């Protein structure tokens, strides 16, 4: 299960040197980059209906502020040009599978299995 692949990583980011610089703590989360792709209009994506069944090809570290639901978040590549320039061909997008309330998804970009 992908949830077991998540690890919270604590990383210290040191200042660039000099007096007056303080150490800052940044909390990172590991997000799996899945071996699946989403196809835009005119392109075919993978036929996998449940992203939790997809194998991860690698992990991506992201600041926890960018990922409020890391146990339900995964990344995948986009195939096609129909979303360019917003999402170019071969871009990596993050998918938060915990967001299922249709009213909260209005005017958002979503990944839909068909």
Quick recap:
The chain is mostly beta strands. It is 0% helix and 37% strand.
Please, could you describe this protein's structure?
The chain is mostly beta strands. It has one domain. 0% of the residues lie in helices and 37% in strands. The chain contains no helices and five strands. The protein has strands at residues 8-13, 24-39, 56-63, 73-79, 92-96. Strands 1, 2, 3, 4 and 5 form a five-stranded mixed sheet that branches. It is globular and about 45 Å long. It starts with 7 loop residues before the first strand and ends in an 18-residue tail after the last strand. 10% of the residues are buried.
Features:
114 residues; globular; disordered N terminus; mainly beta
Large-scale geometry? globular
- Whole-number total of structural domains: 1
Total helical segments: 0
- Low-confidence sequence ranges: 1-17
| Cα separation of the termini | 23 Å
Could you describe the largest sheet, including whether it forms a barrel? 5 strands, mixed
Mean pLDDT: 75
Query: Percentage of helical residues?
Result: under 10%
Taken in chain order, the helices and strands follow as EEEEE
User: From the helix content, strand content and strand pairing, which structural class follows?
Assistant: mainly beta
Give me the count of strands.
Answer: 5
């Amino acid at each position: 299960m992908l949830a077991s692949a998540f690890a919270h990583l604590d990383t210290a980011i040191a200042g660039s040197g000099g007096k007056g610089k303080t150490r800052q703590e940044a909390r990172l989360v590991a997000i799996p980059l899945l071996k699946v792709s989403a196809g835009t209009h005119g392109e075919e994506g993978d036929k996998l209906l449940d992203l939790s069944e997809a194998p991860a090809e690698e992990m991506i570290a992201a600041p926890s502020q960018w990922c409020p639901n890391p146990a339900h978040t995964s990344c995948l590549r986009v195939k096609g040009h129909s979303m360019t320039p917003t999402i170019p061909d071969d871009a990596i997008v993050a998918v938060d599978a915990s967001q299922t309330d249709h009213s909260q998804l209005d005017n958002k970009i979503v990944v839909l299995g068909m």
